[in-house]
Amino acid sequence: MGDNMTSITEFTLMGFPLGLRVQLLLFGLFSLFFVFTLLGNGLILGLILLDSRLHTPMYFFLSHLAIVDIAYACNTVPQKLVNLLNPDKPISFAGCLTQTFLFLTFAVTECLLLVVMSYDRYVAICHPLRYSAVMSWRVCVTLVLTSWTTGILLSLIHLVLLLPLPFCRFQKINHFFCEIMAVLKLACADRHINEIVVLAGAVSVLVGPLSSIVISYMCILCAILRIQSGEGQRKVFSTCSSHLCVVGLFYGTAIIMYVGPRYGNPKEQKKYLLLFHSLFNPMLNPLIYSLRNLEVKNALKRVLGTERDL
Predict the structure, then answer these.
(1) 5, 62, 105, 208: which could form a disulfide with 151 (CB 3.0–4.6 Å)?
(2) Which residues pair with 91 in a beta bridge?
(3) pLDDT digits (tens, 9 = 90+) for 219-250
(4) CA–CA separation, 154 vs 198, rounded Å?
């Protein structure tokens, strides 16, 4: 053990043990998905910036969700692509921990932003006369800063607990990026406290916020049913259904991975599920909002119409 407990300078990501042709095919597909993620979320950001009608609290929160999705994808997808082309290429110890920290930061921030967006919809639909007073720009900025700050602080806690752990030599991470549970498995010391903290953090940012989202949408559903205008119901439902789709995709996969059965002993299925979570979710979010949200589609038409006039 004395020889094996030397300082670690790098890790090797095992990724997916597939044939060369399959890896090249996946490299092409993942590269395409990555480009779509950047373009889709960039389009959402551009529309919100260019169209003054989207300068509202709801789209202010959506713009930060798009920023998180871009950062989320940029943190993990390039490493996936490198791993597919060169499976033996190592990642430095500092780079691995940085990737872990950023992944946790963006994941927690997105969890909280989705809660903030559900609260915004609750106030807009259930208390429309008080909406401007409750969701002032000062409140919106405070909610967004709180989401980012909480994400950073919780990630720092995990990083501080991870850094003192000794790691053995010749470490191979059974994952396609430095996911915290996969990294913890390589520690040559008792990691029980770390795993408890990860589980407690997952419960606090997944189960609690999801419960508040469910309660908010139960109130929203009651308010929608009281709307007499069919057109009004469709407009409200279109906006809320987009958010619910994003919530279902994000929270569903995250809860299965970190709060589901046999936590702490992830199987290959969870690795593929995390691939969906980190690769497809950021790409699908702008598609969901653009295809199901009437205001976003109208904003796109206005921007394109302006460009044609020029």
Answers:
(1) 105
(2) 11
(3) 888 887 776 666 666 766 766 777 777 888 88
(4) 10
